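User: Please fill in residues for this 226-position structure.
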């Protein structure tokens, strides 16, 4: 069993990093708990494929004031800048929000509003939400999934909603059903992440100097300059 997402920024040298964004307000938080379980399932599935991976947590409650500042000024700084870099530089993303007024929380939406346009293009994303009743489960499909689709992320087919009863106990309780959904969603995210080039390799390609390996002059002459 893997441990919960680390509360540090960083990435594995040769493996993949899963950023884990949680918009829970309390400590402890059922939203963070669900996020950790989803991330653990994705990491386990990647390791099952022979791909080393780690999860890095981003608790949005820690950055609430800086997010408001960023919305007003247009600039991110300090710990918020580190959190943004963690998310946009990851190989995959787990994003979990509590349900407020039948939608994602303002804290959750504000963080993704702060990101620069295009920063999540092609990013594999697993979405989740928590709430007091299962009646709000469709918030993932009518609010959260469309938001990430608009940001051109690639959202895993299975979204996981955890209501209060899902945290119950007993053989006939909600735990088994939630565990199955978490495992399926984690496997889907792992498949999307494994199919994509590592983030580090993509950054190296983007940063490569196009003039670092010029074509020898003799070869240009031999090809008629073409």
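Assistant: Residues filled in for all 226 positions:
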């Amino acid at each position: 069993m893997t441990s919960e997402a680390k509360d540090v920024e960083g990435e594995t040298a040769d493996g993949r990093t899963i950023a884990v964004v949680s918009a829970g307000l309390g400590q402890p938080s059922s939203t963070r708990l669900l996020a950790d379980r989803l991330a653990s399932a994705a990491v386990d599935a990647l390791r099952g494929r022979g791909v080393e991976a780690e999860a890095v947590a981003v608790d949005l409650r820690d950055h609430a004031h800086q997010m408001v500042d960023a919305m007003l000024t247009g600039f991110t700084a300090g710990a918020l800048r580190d959190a943004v870099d963690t998310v946009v530089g990851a190989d995959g993303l787990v994003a979990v929000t509590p349900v407020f007024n039948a939608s994602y929380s303002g804290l959750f939406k504000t963080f993704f509003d702060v990101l620069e346009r295009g920063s999540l293009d092609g990013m594999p994303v697993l979405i989740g939400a928590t709430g007091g009743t299962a009646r709000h489960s469709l918030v993932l499909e009518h609010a959260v999934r469309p938001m990430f689709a608009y940001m051109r992320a690639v959202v895993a087919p299975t979204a996981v909603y955890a209501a209060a009863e899902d945290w119950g106990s007993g053989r006939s309780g909600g735990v088994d059903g939630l565990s199955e959904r978490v495992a399926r969603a984690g496997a889907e995210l792992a498949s999307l992440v494994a199919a994509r080039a590592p983030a580090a390799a993509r950054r190296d390609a983007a940063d490569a100097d196009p003039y670092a390996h010029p074509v020898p002059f003799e070869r240009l002459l031999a090809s008629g300059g073409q």
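For context: Confidence is low (pLDDT under 50) at residues 8-13, 169-174.
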